[in-house]
């Protein structure tokens, strides 16, 4: 096989693997969902459906099967583990059925991966030793069982990052609205109902809080629940300041201005920290991926010439 053929095959293999990895990341990784790359004007308002409502019936056949598995494992929505419910709320899934779907996905993935390798080994022409087959099946089953936990952890991390990043701008808008003469509830409604921010987690949580207050929930309780739903410590401290301001009767505009300035400074500090860590993070891909390519390009002609010379001497 010639050098040109090897180079072409290597390029095709690397391009195919890169394209496949990119498609998998765009499909399954929350940090790289394709909706985040869409322009802001393309976001829909979500119709007339309220964020306080959810569908009672599964959307597809697979979802119905997974929910049945979850009910067999976790029981009903009320008896499902509360730790998963809290983490799913932090990830943005408020439906009661989300816990059952999550438990069903854990069991289905664990059983599916484990049984797939087991059946594949039984159907293979070359017989695999039973201890090895059983060990690999158990390992794959454990990986499949904990894979949804990793996905949920990543989802919570991305959502918290989005909330923290949007917090200074939201506080600035609330401060402008309050200082312009609007009440706190009207300012929250004005900020949360922006057409270009319908997919923002913080704006959706503010809209949910505003609708709960309109439905009759006390404002202080709605604010506390907002902080618990987000799972962000910065938002929890700001909510505590809002409640204290309302109890003492101090001006809300000054409180918003102070917290908006502090949140903006913290966001700048986080950006500077990430900028300082960027060269260190780039060191590992450079060493493991770029340096071998550099050595291959620089040393390959010399090695080929040396091999030709040794071949001529041997003859």
Can you put this structure into words, describing what you see?
The chain is mostly helical. The protein has a domain of 107 residues: Receptor-associated Protein (Up-down Bundle), CATH 1.20.81. The longest helix is centred in the C-terminal third of the chain and has 63 residues. It is flat and about 100 Å long. The chain starts with a helix and ends with a helix. About 4% of the residues have low confidence.
Secondary structure layout plus pairing:
Elements: H1 3-28, H2 61-74, H3 82-90, H4 97-123, H5 130-179, H6 184-192, H7 201-214, H8 219-230, H9 233-248, H10 252-314
Helix pairs in contact: 2-4, 4-5, 5-6, 5-10, 6-7, 7-8, 8-9, 9-10
Note poorly predicted spans: 34-47
SS-derived structural category: mainly alpha
Compute the gyration radius: what is it? 27 Å
CATH architecture of one domain: Up-down Bundle
Q: Which percent band covers the strand fraction?
A: under 5%
First-to-last CA distance: 22 Å
Could you estimate the helical fraction of the residues in percent? over 70%
Principal-axes shape call: flat
The CATH C-level class name of one domain:
Mainly Alpha
The largest β sheet comes out as: none
Query: How many E-type strands?
Result: 0
Order of helices and strands: HHHHHHHHHH
Give the averaged pLDDT, no decimals.
79
Return the CATH topology of one domain.
Answer: Receptor-associated Protein
Counted by DSSP, the helix tally is 10
Précis, in short:
This protein is mostly helical and 315 residues long. The chain has a domain at 163-269: Receptor-associated Protein.
